[in-house]
Amino acid sequence: MLHHLRAATAALVVVLAGCQTVPPAPPPKPPAPPPSTAPVQRFAPVDWRDLPGWGEDDVAAAWPAFVVGCKALVARTQSQATWKAPCDAASRVDGASTSAVRAFFMEHFSPYRIANDDGTDTGLVTGYYEPLLAGSRTPTPDYAIALYGVPDDLLVVDLSSLYPELKDKRVRGRVEGRKVVPYWPRADIERGAAPVAGKALAFVADPVEAFFLEIQGSGRIALADGSVMRLGYADQNGHPYRSVARVLIDRGELTRDTASMQAIRSWVQAHPAEARALLDENPSYVFFRELPKPPAGSIEAAIDGPLGSLGVPLLSERTIAVDARYVPLGAPVYLATTKPSSNAPLQRLTLAQDTGGAIRGPVRADFFWGFGTQAGREAGRMRQDGRMWLLWPKGAPPPRG
After folding, report:
1. Whole-number Cα distances in Å, 192 to 37, 146, 394
2. 20 to 30 Å CA-CA from 47: which of 37, 174, 240, 252?
3. 72 CA to centre of own chain
4. 19: alpha, beta or left, given left = phi > 0 and alpha = psi -120 to 50?
């Protein structure tokens, strides 16, 4: 019965519609305004009250990183003019006093909100750490995966010497005949194409752990005699970094919410025959150098972290890696994000003392969790939204970004 009523009603609507006068067509809509061509204000000045949690953060915990960073910044000719005044003033601050450190930053720095190219101020915050692997200085049946130093045929061409507008742009390659060609990608290096014989610094057991050591950029190798060697980033083969997590997400093997270092390890364990092909999806390859121990009693020894791109040791939970094309290396950055896999706030003063191949964009940070298993657990799960504020010396024009 209901079916017949619907049919009859529909027929009546059609008949009535046919008896009505057709109204005139509405006037055409005005064209949409063109998109704004106004440049994005990369660094917008804000008030200290705009930094969430600024008044509650134990900013003194970041003081050792700031002090050691000052030594590097003042030593550099290109940054000396910007940093000498605040760094000189820092020598008169009680670095153990949170209130004194907070007052120092508010007196000598101005906060700027960092924006993306589209004007938004939210970006991705990931984590990294310094791993510990068992290994050997020579190959053994148990330790056969090599960690290499820089090969002799790797060329690094500084383009700024030819084109000043390409400041900080370097191309890596090798000579083939009379041409400079791209350096070998990961798959070829692993299969022996590159002349790396005699360049191995250490050998470890697991190719996946060696791969993650490259991603972290530094690590420690526990040797059989009880000593520990420390490896740091030396160079890279010039190929762009490609996330194997993204590869697995695109294949439907993982989701964005479940993609983590631990999840990748689990996938490899479940698919051992496909492990090498997965790792080769990332053509980037990192070469290491052995790091000397810092002088006993120095602030560098007290921090006890791996060396970052600024050339100073990284302080756990107070230093970040950034894209130095936008955020000046060495600058204090206030970070507001959340703890791994949670909504718990993580709001604190950090120092931008490192860079990374996967760190691309203005509002993009890699949070250094420190050394060891627990730090690795936090780093592997961290993929959070976050905001960033540049703290820049008063009196100095903000960077162009």
Report:
1. 50, 11, 53
2. 37
3. 21
4. alpha
pLDDT in tens, 177-224: 999 999 999 999 999 999 998 999 999 999 999 999 999 999 999 999
Beta strands in 189-303 (DSSP E): 200-204, 218-222, 228-236, 286-290
Give me the pLDDT at residue 358, please: 85
Rg (CA), the chain: 27
- How far CA 127 is from CA of 80, 175, 260, 298, 337, in Å, comes to 30, 36, 10, 27, 12
Determine contact, residues 310/329, Cβ cutoff 8 Å. Answer: yes
CA–CA separation, 314 vs 217, rounded Å? 12
Once rounded to an integer, what is the mean pLDDT over residues 139-154? 96
Homologous superfamily in CATH for domain 40-150+199-242+282-393: RlpA-like domain (2.40.40.10)
Residue of 283, 288, 268 whose CA lies nearest to 189: 283
**Any residues with CB less than 8 A from the CB of 381 and at least 6 apart, and which?**
127, 260, 261, 262, 340, 341
The stretches of 63-113 forming alpha helices (DSSP H) are 63-75, 77-90, 98-108
Length of the chain: 401
CA nearest to 388, candidates 307, 328, 313:
328
Identify the three-state secondary structure at position 8.
Answer: helix
CA–CA separation, 97 and 93 (whole Å): 8
Q: How far apart are CA 142 and CA 179, in angstroms?
A: 40
Residue 258's pLDDT band, with cuts at 50, 70 and 90, is confident
| DSSP three-state, residue 340 | coil
Of 70, 96, 99, nearest in space to 85 by CA? 70
Q: pTM here?
A: 0.83
Query: What letter does residue 219 receive in the DSSP assignment?
Result: E
The residues facing 334 across adjacent strands are 349, 389
Give, for 394, the enclosing helix (H) or strand (E): none
Contacts of 185 (CB under 8 A, 6+ apart): 237, 239, 280, 283, 285
